[in-house]
Amino acid sequence: MNSMQVKQEFNAPLETVFELLSKHATYSQVFAPVQVVRIKDAADPQRPDGVGSVRKMGIGPVKPLQEQITLLEVNERIEYQIIKNPLVKHHLGIIEFKAIDANKTLVTYTIELQARAPFVSKLILAQLKLAITLGFKKLAKTVA
User: Fold this and answer.
1) Sorted alphabetically, which CDD domains does this protein's record hold (predicted)?
2) Strands of 35-40's sheet in order across
3) What are 110-115's contacts with CB under 8 Å, separation 24+?
4) Residue 32 scores a pLDDT above 80
5) CB-based burial label for 107 (10 Å; 0-12, 13-18, 19+)
6) Which of 111, 116, 142 has its CA nearest to residue 127?
7) How far apart are CA 50 and CA 71, in angstroms?
8) Can you give the pLDDT at residue 86?
9) pTM: predicted TM-score of the whole model, two decimal places
10) For residue 81, what pLDDT is reported?
11) Where are the domains of the chain?
12) What is the pLDDT of residues 4-29, one digit of tens each?
């Protein structure tokens, strides 16, 4: 299985960073100009971006990627999978949160990917790693 991992420190408390990254709208900031829109709410009305929620991603009216939140452990871990994509056999995103101290949080973002076409997975993962690294660095500067 091909995978990539990005680690980013945020100068903010664990709870603040988790709340920020548990919201689909935050990813529009992280991955601009790509837009991320929730199209299905989670069953939990207190956390509409939680387990079972679905977001679509793309630019303008074209948003071909759909991801569904499959696990949400508050202040610890978020997992999601790409759904309804004929080009991808397996895609699992894992975002883990760890307090370094009271005002510093380490976020570890891992993506496992297996595309249906050979050799495509590594290319996609390299692009994702670059986008996530740049997006998280930019986001970390805005969080305090």
Assistant:
1) PYR_PYL_RCAR_like
2) 2-10, 104-115, 88-101, 77-83, 62-73, 54-59, 35-40
3) 110/3, 110/4, 110/5, 111/3, 111/4, 111/5, 112/1, 112/2, 112/3, 113/1, 113/2, 113/3, 113/4, 113/88, 114/1, 114/2, 114/88, 114/89, 114/90, 115/87, 115/88, 115/89
4) yes
5) buried
6) 111
7) 8
8) 82
9) 0.94
10) 97
11) 2-142
12) 999 999 999 999 999 999 999 999 98
Sign of CA dihedral 132, 135, 138, 143: negative
**Which tokens sit at 58?**
């793309």
For 28, 33, 82, 128, the CA distances from 142, given in Å and listed in that order, are 14, 17, 28, 21
Residue 108 is which amino acid?
T
Residue pointed to by tokens 């709208």:
25
Tokens of 30: 């992280």
The answer to whether 129 and 3 are in contact (CB under 8 A) is no
* The pLDDT of residue 128 is above 80: yes
Residue 105 CB neighbour total at 10 angstroms: 26
Average pLDDT, the chain: 94
CATH topology of domain 2-142: Alpha-D-Glucose-1,6-Bisphosphate; Chain A, domain 4 (3.30.530)
Instruction: Give the pLDDT of residue 118.
Output: 77
